[in-house]
Amino acid sequence: MATLKDAKRIVIKVGTSTLTHSTGKTNIRRMKALVAVISDIVNSGIEVALVTSGAIGVGVGKLGLKDRPTDTAGKQAAATVGQCELMFMYDKMFGEFGHATGQFLITKRDVEHEECHNNLINAFEKTFEYGAIPIINENDAVAVEEIVYGDNDSLSAIVAKLVKADALLILTDIDGLYDDNPNENEDARIIPVVEEITEGLFEIAGGKGSKFGTGGMITKLIAAQIATEAGIDTIIINGFDADNIYKVLEGHQVGTFFVAKNRK
């Protein structure tokens, strides 16, 4: 964990379960705490890109829907409403700490198309140069990959590769990767360090995400696999306490640490 003490650029991914209450409405307390910690980290000289889920969940709450839509068009419509609200709140909260934000809405095609890929990298670098905080989400109104597959976990790893981050921090609603299902086995223990992501870990991580999100531990393992293979240390931590980010950067053992291969 001590390797992160020298991190100069990190990507933080926050999921729907951290940003919203069980009702689907925004958890303002957690969102404010997250923004305060990120602002303080940026003040210390570390560059931070924030990959945020929550557009659909926030949209569900904003529209007063009882449940998350099950059809793609309904999810996309909720996302268009929720994304406006989400960015308004981020911009307002970060602004209170003197930080500007830049919105990136990305699709799989943007990453795979060579010209778009290069344009994304250049835009990220210039945003950092200008001292703004990039806030990234998948463009749910036109893309269905995240809606179907996984709450932006893989996207956060892809962004970490694009910006050549030193570390990827994935914030979720549990303390890390357990050796068994903690909801069914009270003796389940957190796996503190993972040197290699194996098929056995994917079997352990089976299970669905929260009511308003789409991700689960499996999608986070996939993200960790993408990032670590690119030389980026990855940590899964509980996002309900934003101070866990400080602990990780200070080298304390928090959550599950996935060791990068061929570290940059």
Protein traits:
11 helices; 16% strand; alpha/beta; 264 residues; globular; eight-stranded mixed beta sheet; Carbamate kinase
SSE inventory with pairings:
Layout: E1 9-14, H1 16-19, H2 28-43, E2 47-52, H3 55-63, H4 72-96, E3 101-106, H5 108-112, H6 114-129, E4 133-138, H7 145-149, H8 153-162, E5 167-172, E6 193-194, H9 199-204, H10 217-229, E7 233-238, H11 243-249, E8 256-258
Parallel strand pairs: 1-2, 1-5, 2-4, 3-4, 5-7, 6-8
Antiparallel strand pairs: 7-8
Helix pairs in contact: 3-4, 8-10
What does this structure look like?
This protein has a single domain (2-258), classed as Acetylglutamate kinase-like (Carbamate kinase), CATH 3.40.1160. Helices cover 44% and strands 16% of the residues. The chain has helices at 16-19, 28-43, 55-63, 72-96, 108-112, 114-129, 145-149, 153-162, 199-204, 217-229, 243-249, and strands at residues 9-14, 47-52, 101-106, 133-138, 167-172, 193-194, 233-238, 256-258. Strands 3-4-2-1-5-7-8-6 form an eight-stranded mixed sheet, sandwiched between helices. Keywords: Amino-acid biosynthesis, ATP-binding, Cytoplasm, Kinase, Nucleotide-binding, Proline biosynthesis, Transferase.
